[in-house]
Amino acid sequence: MSVLGDDARRFTWRARRRRRILIWVAAVVAALVAFVATAVYSPIMSVREIVVTGVERVDKAQLDASLADLHGQPLALVTNDDVESRLQSYVLVQSYSIRVEPPSRLVVTIVERSPIGTVQTPTGYDVMDAAGVVLWTQSEPAVDIPTLDLGGQGVGSEAFASAAAVSLALPVACRSGVATVTAKSIDDVRLTMRSGAEVVWGSAEDSDRKAQVLAALVTATSEQSISSYDVSSPETPVTR
């Protein structure tokens, strides 16, 4: 037997072996693709339940209706863009996140905008969040959030930024007891409580600490007649 013949047979054997390996790999890949495609597009893995959480002010029934056409879609193919296109008309929705729970549940978690004050306009009172987004308009001042007195300055002013920062820092229970937040300048913010007491706040700096102190003072003096609170220096507050 010639050396040349042996080399030819070895070359042919290697070629056949490579072909078998390539065919095996292709078969495995094809089977994997078929399995994934079957899993993704199977009715078992389609959206059959949509759970919306985090909703307080937004009409949940309307949200459910807006998302309803996602039922039957392949669960793995539902994207943020799909949900965003259905929620973008809801002003009260600040942000959201989605989570898929196989085999068929889509969870949409909503973060709502927080109303922190109203601004009087010729047509009523615009209820706003801290970014100046108008959430809705009503004919009367709100009974659970303060009116922002900006001294004639607009929503894009430093006065609004200061008033909004102060209102946002207040705990919800304390905020509902504030009738007016007046911002004459960025360093001169004052509150008028619904009880009639005045609050000297100072600048919007350290508002979280000032809010904690004010809430504690209001609670501690609930049975006293207080005309004013001064939390402009939160470590040394004054009540009168």
UniProtKB/TrEMBL annotation:
Record key words, sorted = Cell cycle, Cell division, Cell membrane, Membrane, Transmembrane, Transmembrane helix
Q: Which GO terms describe its biological process?
A: cell division
Q: Which residues cross the membrane?
A: 21-41
Q: Which InterPro entries match?
A: Cell_div_FtsQ/DivIB_C (IPR005548), FtsQ_DivIB (IPR050487), POTRA_FtsQ_type (IPR013685)
- What's in the GO CC field? plasma membrane
Residues in a coiled coil are none
Superkingdom, taxonomy of origin: Bacteria
What is the protein named?
A: Cell division protein FtsQ
Source species of the chain: Pseudoclavibacter helvolus
